[in-house]
Amino acid sequence: MKHYPVKYILIILCILNQKLPDLNAEKNFIRSLNIQTGISDSFSDSKKEHQLTWDSGFKLTSLPFTLTAFYGKEDFRWGIESRINQKYLFFDTKILAGFLKHSGAVSRLKSPLPASFSPLKSPLLPSQGITSSLPGLNGSCREFSTAIYFSPGTLSRHFPSIQAAFIPHKEFFFNLNKNLPFFFKGNLTAGITGGLFRHGYKATSQWFLKRLPYKEDYYGAGEILLNINLPAIKSSAAFSIFQNPFGTPAKALTLTDSLILENFTLNALLYFADEDLISASSSQSLTKMELKINPQYLFTIKNAQLNTGLSLEKTYSPSPSSSIKAALQLTAEKRKASLTFSRSRQKKKASYSSRLLLTVPVLKIKNSISFLYKYSDSKENISFSHSISAPGCPLTTAGMSFASDIRPAENQRIKIWMQFNLAFKRIKVNGKVSFSFSGDFL
User: Using CA atoms, how far apart are residues 222 and 174, in angstroms rounded to an integer?
Assistant: First the structure.
């Protein structure tokens, strides 16, 4: 793995800030230091395997930049971020480099199929723009990339926000978005995302092909997203287009709407796509249409609130599927109880699950208890977990979970974990330790 020298990037970022800071003159040059560590130990009785993983690093926040570095069992990750305000440039500028994680609009180009609805889903619109973040604990990014953000300042408020990112020899993508005033004290946000993504597909079998192979090369993909946010209505339309290695570009359209009337909320989503769509991550989606409907109602009973929700989903593809989820959540002061039930069906095979979650404070200690049961034609399992958290205590969270497979073969899993948090003025230390064991021991 090739690592790019940190010192050269530091010098460049400081020059962009118009001066190299004087460490002796600036008392608050270093604002905070967060040290993080994590250790996980697991043992499988059936495979007689013992696996120890660990990851440690820090996040240093100073005046000119933020630096993170983490070293784990298999990789080393680092990242640096610098902000330049509009005193020196026309825009508020942010520059990042390192082993970054990119999300937001670019994630929809790589996975265009909408995520499943929760019965108590909040009426949120798809996010505008690209979010690039520095590596953190237990990160999985092993590719160097750079990103730059331009946000309009006082003198450039009529310009759009601009974001761009580059992964050498693999990807380049950008986003432009602008927030505009709309009717009835609302706002309209328009954004466009585009890029070139390198991907391909090789056949794994010579005699039977589940999908056609194609040459690895750069393929274009783009999205136009419009979000309308009003006091009682949230509406979104996203149109995506993907270069197809076999001919005509593939298209996808996602319509998302939410109606909010006091205690009643209705979320709906409609997704259309060409059947031969190949995403920016080379995954092939065969879903032609998907419909999601999610009504919710909030009951108020004296000092308690009962939130109810129902989620209905139908997918049209070569393997059509459907699902229904229902949830009840009772909240009274700091106590909470929720019950969730779901049923899904695909190719005449059905699966069921139910979950009970309780949150009860005892002597200012938050207790969370969860029961989960899953059943299908071929599998059946149960699980239980209990965690406690105490704000202000060095040992912030501790817990244990137990899961057991009933069918097809008996197998149990136990996991114990704890998290701690220590603070010394500008220095914070966070850590997590966990141990898991699997096998047939009942």
Answer: 9
How does pLDDT run across 77-105, given as a tens digit for each residue?
Answer: 999 999 887 665 677 889 999 999 999 99
- Left if phi > 0, otherwise alpha if psi is -120 to 50, otherwise beta: which for 220? beta
* Chain-centroid distance, C-alpha 189: 21
327 strand-pairing partners: 309, 340
What does the DSSP assignment read for 37-70? EEEEEEEETTTTEEEEEEEEEEEEEESSEEEEEE
Q: Are 337 and 357 in contact (CB under 8 A)?
A: yes
Burial string for 207-228 (b: 16+ CB within 10 Å, else e) reads eeeeeeebeeeebebbbebbbb
Burial annotation 151-174 (CB, 10 A radius, 16+ → b, else e): bbbeeeeeebbbbbbbbeeebbbb
Cβ–Cβ < 8 Å for 147, 173: no
Measured over the CA atoms of residue 431, residue 104, residue 327 and residue 298, the dihedral's sign is positive
User: 218 φ, ψ to 5°?
Assistant: -85, 130
Name the E strands within 134-263.
Answer: 145-152, 161-167, 171-182, 186-201, 214-229, 233-244, 247-261
Helix%, strand%, coil% for the chain, nearest 5: 5, 65, 30
Residue 388 vs residues 225, 260, 361, 385, 403: alpha-carbon distances, Å? 41, 35, 9, 10, 19
What DSSP state is assigned to residue 219?
A: E
pLDDT tens per residue, range 162-206: 999 999 999 999 999 998 888 777 899 999 999 999 999 887 665
- Residue 403 structure tokens: 């899961």
